């Protein structure tokens, strides 16, 4: 049985106006169903766990929304960070809390804002990672690259071990030339930020490479069910290093030969923008229009390959337009070509510079 | 002094979703200011009249909106038709009501849904028409064609008379070949449905060509200030011919040599669709984007020549799009290329066929 941790953070600026500071990507229903990415992630990890062993780590700003979207996750399993301290603190805290309950538990960590449509295939891969994790390796799950994407870090595979491989190295996000090399080389996978390990092994590595962080999360976890928790949080949390789990633990552990990797034999999507969303959710008919489930209706005539999000309860009518993004929300509307989906970020920047905090 | 009549009817289907059955074109602020077309028309005719001599004829469905948009028009001057009976009945009724008050009055009739930006030039032309109308001609005002438009009827000029011409004939909306001929011939003007006449002369012609209609509007006008008006309306109005003023009076009168025409030396626009609206209102800057004054804001980046109507109080953000129509209303949104502006009518047809009476 897995202890499944879902870190729920990040914003998703390129998904404006659906995503906002107060309504980040993981809370949005970008799954082709009414489920949010967070809900879909939790449903998926439940295939490997039981409800009492599912944890979410999130910020204070989103605690209420997370609690309401996930009524079946026990309140004690929703770990609310007083302020964001990056992934080493978030995942370290979860590992320490789990270790208090079960010192030899196997824990997995899966980001709340990724989309996986085939839950069974996902579970099968995670089980392979659990098998290797039980031998004492810190496991990652790598994604078979569908192309030379420069938006991801890469994992370089070493020697085979059981159902996976030693991880030879974490590789930074490459330039285009390097990305093409990696994909044609065949021994590189995308780093999707999915981890599986025994909490005792992980905490040992954390203690070795980031002792202060280790001690702090251990102290917090030990006081988890006590009245002193709040005061300890106020005292310790602001002192923690802001550092990613990759830098803090995984890279030094990989250098020491302690990290393994299992290739993910499942579809996996980092739905970062509306064009990608359209590719992932696919059209229901031969017009190629993708209508993301929302509160409104659509009437699309002589229009093709558009991505339409009717999220304001209104009719969205389009006539004679192709390859557009149309996102309708109660206080803002976006119209933009699909091939410029990345540039939505710039619009949000303009709004920030104009102090339109009501809209970002 | 002119008695100015403003028939306020018509729908404006190609201006959906701004225009609806319950919110026709003439009630909409398509003037580049906060004024509706109706308000702008009434402001314009006031240059020639005084407030007590301005009349509006409209349907029961729009009486309340007309009354509220025009608080300065006397209640008795807003003639409310119980049901639509086309323009001969509407204009005939107005003429008869004016004749009751002043039997030799000069009356002008100007549609509520046309846009004229230069009111002084308009007034100057109307004064020329009044001069000829006082001699006993039924006058029309023709528009110098800006091109071979097949969407208008044409006026063929005859011999010069005073500051205008005899009207030789009304010509039906032509095909493209004929339209090109008319424009190059130089003696054709667009029929813009603007009329100026002495009410006694007009009513005499109405009596000659449509005696039943004449008698009915005379009877109604005579009872206008009496308690019997409502009963008479209920009895007579449904029996009236549904016929346009052109067919009922102007064409037969022209055949008898009793119609004159003055060329309109003013800009004139039948703003029938959003592309035309964009051409008429013109862009405020070199991006060529036209933002029609609405309740919402816009953020248009790397976007050119779009016509944007932010009428839902929301932000309309567009990035990297050109030559689009974006119309944002509280219950429906339209996105369509400007060169397909005419086809908006087809969208409305689809909604009607789907029984979406809430949206049309």
Automatic annotation (TrEMBL), chains A, B:
MF-aspect GO terms: GTP binding; mannose-1-phosphate guanylyltransferase (GTP) activity
SUPFAM superfamilies from the UniProt entry: Guanosine diphospho-D-mannose pyrophosphorylase/mannose-6-phosphate isomerase linker domain (SSF159283), Nucleotide-diphospho-sugar transferases (SSF53448)
Superkingdom of the source species: Bacteria
Domain MannoseP isomerase/GMP-like beta-helix: 305-351
Catalytic activity: alpha-D-mannose 1-phosphate + GTP + H(+) = GDP-alpha-D-mannose + diphosphate
Record key words, sorted: GTP-binding, Nucleotide-binding, Nucleotidyltransferase, Transferase
Family stated for the protein in its record: Belongs to the mannose-6-phosphate isomerase type 2 family.
Name of this protein: mannose-1-phosphate guanylyltransferase
Native organism taxonomy: Bacteria, Bacillati, Actinomycetota, Actinomycetes, Glycomycetales
